[in-house]
## 1
Amino acid sequence: MTTTALVTKPQAGDDLSIWPGSTTRLSHGGLSVGGVDLSEIAERFGTPTYVLDQGEVRERCRMYRHAFPDAEVLYAAKAFLSRATVRWIEEEGLGLDVCSAGELELAVTAGFPGERIVLHGNAKSPHDLEAALRLGVGRIVIDSPSEIARLAAAVGPEGHQKVMIRVVPGVAAGGHAKIRTGTDDQKFGLSLTDGQAHHAIARVLGQPQLELTGLHCHLGSQITTVKPYFVALRRMVGLMARIRDTHGVVLTELDIGGGHGIAYRPGEPALSLTALARRLRAELDESCAAAGLAVPRFIVEPGRAVAGPAGVALYRVLAVKHTGDQTFVAVDGGMSDNPRPALYGVRYAPRLIGRHSVAATRTATVVGRHCEAGDILAADAELPGDIRPGDLLAVPVAGAYQLSMASGYNLVGRPPVVAVHDGHARLLVRRETLDDFRARDVGL
Ligand SMILES: *Cc1c(COP(=O)(O)O)cnc(C)c1O
């Protein structure tokens, strides 16, 4: 018996696999996310607008807690941070990884407990360190030799601060050269191969007010296979064994960072969380047993994989241009709300919403409204051939590293963020207006 004939093949571009789990098709080509029609959101809040599915963010936090039941899961705030997301992350029992006094203060003032926060950064300013100590962050991750004395002085002889050391394990992984951080040819961390990590460890152990709890590494971002993680894990356990042998100190924490890859277009590979968790657990137990080490508390730091798939960007088409054999579909946002295609050549799968088109699809380049030829939002987008000004485009997987990297270019203003949940939409972050730019422009 065969049932395949009964399954209707989805139309090109109709694959919802990368959309939030709550996404449903509406009549007339509409889509709803979190129970809210995206076209209605565009009407009510204007465009461009970013939609964040609250249930999807929470569900992804739960997936991590479930996959890593014994580990500490820290959400990497730089992927996207707002006071509401801080609350969701807190309620779901995750910790937070921040890279600046700004991220830190926003989180703490939104009610996040300081001791569940870890501060990173390759160049922490005096203000970053002052805020970290004032707000009582759980751990500070040391990323350069000079930071050790500065931090020890800031903590003071009577003080106490837990720290980790960021180690470069010499593992190349990540979706693009600009987001690979596991090898010695980039700015983050202290090298395992040239002795910098060893040197820093010895210096930290010599500072009584700094308590070295463990080691940290972060290989890069948009990693879709498990192998780089367990290679790094083995090297980190090896280093922990050497620290015990050299200094007689047994570290109790191992932070393997984030970087878990997600699909931006249907059919793209994503990192399997369950495979990662299973493999790392086994590897950790095995290599610790081999080295005669107690198994340290494990820490993971996902950013993109928590926030990315929960976001959808909405744009209005402003102009369509056919140039030679190319079609340019220009929308009312662009590199000021999403610099990722320009930075790393990332590709997205935008979709026409709010109108049903029967026109054959054609390949188009979705471009922004900014004064840069590189202001491309989606190359090779499959869109209906009759796409026209006034149409609405929705871009899934827009929740991470878009608004958090947004700029004021061309004084267009950064888009608002609207949370959707259980059929309701509410504004989390309002649109940036000309008044905001004027308010900062204080000289004449
Ligand atoms: C950016 C970053 C992360 C998160 O990376 P994702 O790719 O968003 O998972 C985790 N840890 C550190 C130290 C980072 O810099």
Note: The pocket of pyridoxal-5'-phosphate is lined by residues 76, 78-79, 97, 120, 218, 221, 257-260, 301-305 (CB under 6 Å).
## 2
Amino acid sequence: MEAIKSSSITGLRNSPLEMTPEEFRSLGHRLVDRVAEFLASLPRRPVSPAESPLQIRALLGDSPLPERGTPAETLLDETAKLLMGHSLFNGHPRFWGFITSPPAPVGILGEMLASAINPNVGGWILSPVASEIEAQTIRWIAEMIGYPRDAGGILVTGGNMANMVAFLAARKARVTWDARTRGMAGEGSRRLRVYASAETHTWLHKAVDLFGPGLDSINWISAGSDQRIDTAELRKKISDDRLLGDLPFMVIGTAGTTSTGAVDPLPEIAAIAHENDLWFHVDGAYGGFAAMAPNAPADLRGMGLADSVAVDPHKWLYAPLDAGCALVRDRNALRDAFTQHRPSYYQLLQDAEQAVNYFEYGPENSRSFRALKIWLAIRQVGREGYAKMIGDDICLAETLFELVSAHPELQAFRQGLSIATFRYVPRDLTPGDAKTEEYLNDLNKAVLAALQKSGEAFMTNAVIGGAFVLRACIVNFRTALSDVQALPEMIARLGAEQDSKLRPAALQGSRAAAN
Ligand SMILES: *Cc1c(COP(=O)(O)O)cnc(C)c1O
């Protein structure tokens, strides 16, 4: 290979990645046209491709690192086809799996604009407007959930990171020894204790593992049959731990559990945290933004009392992935958790009173312009638009719950926020005894797999009191009443098909009798 000499760079660089304005414009228009057609075609497409990892891998092939380039036009055409033909579409009106929303169209365009400017929102000097747009977005998010506008906050990748950032702020604020210098086992250290209901999302397992206290630091509190934390048990466990000499430091409430949408009694937990001088954190990754909806549970008001809250704009603000947001009432507590010294290479960062350098408020250093897609959507529809969309999602889940309750072959379980859970039960089977329950679990697993494979709609599952149930979570501004109305019959049909294949001989008799 010939050595590269600087003398070979004459005049314009002619870099292989560069595009002429004409080329960029023509490729961009072509891509936008394709995306517009794609969005319009979603209702006619299967929700999921039902292809295996091996099938998808085969599409990409196994060629070595390409030595030479491919024209961008060919690439973009091929890639659009690849993605549009083989993805699961959370933008589909019948996507109700996990908690994942369609991307707001203005957010799709915003992502392109953000990339074109490409500010690094780690330091103010690198991102003057973008840093201020992030700050304004955070203030608006605080207002949406009834939180103080002057709280500290930062956008992160999602609910997990937002909860972890809050966890670190709580740990920094409440640990009684110098953990920054001495670590978690420093002089004067005591066993930390954090309280959370058994329905808490798995971010907490990761947080206590990654950030020191370990899994044993979690004092799990039972959730009742309504999936809400048992506050009597919470009080008792805190005082028991105090007597043992442990250091209770944090209690977590969930504003909308992932499985069933249950909202913990947040005002009561706030009072318990206050009495016991604990940091009160609310995980509002799913349900936080429901506070804007007219039909929201009153307990969501307790978010306003928390020391920290995590919310997830890529869930109920319908922002394209990814975007989470951590809010901490005392902005200095957030900064203290992440700021120590300013290294020499950052000495010139603006120190002007108002300049926020986001690398000092969270774990990341270089940061993308996550705020723009959220900020644009908020400005496009306002609080009013979100109240309507979130309120409608909740109404549709209520309607679905009524429909399955009335259906002779479906058994309704729970409805919380925009989640409805239910299962298929053949007419001739009576749930209850162990053998029947075991079969119903197997049957409903098969029904769910068949539904996902069919591409007609997409749901996931929950487990409630040992029962495997189908779970529809409607965080989807495209879902219409007719989509929800179609679901019960779809499940009844798939249920009958699977039942005829899977019913064991021991449960066969009653079936024959019913036929
Ligand atoms: C979704 C969810 C999370 C995790 O959020 P990600 O955005 O997936 O990281 C945490 N807690 C609750 C209650 C959630 O629903």
Note: The pocket of pyridoxal-5'-phosphate is lined by residues 99, 158-160, 163, 201, 203, 254, 258, 283, 285-286, 312, 324 (CB under 6 Å).
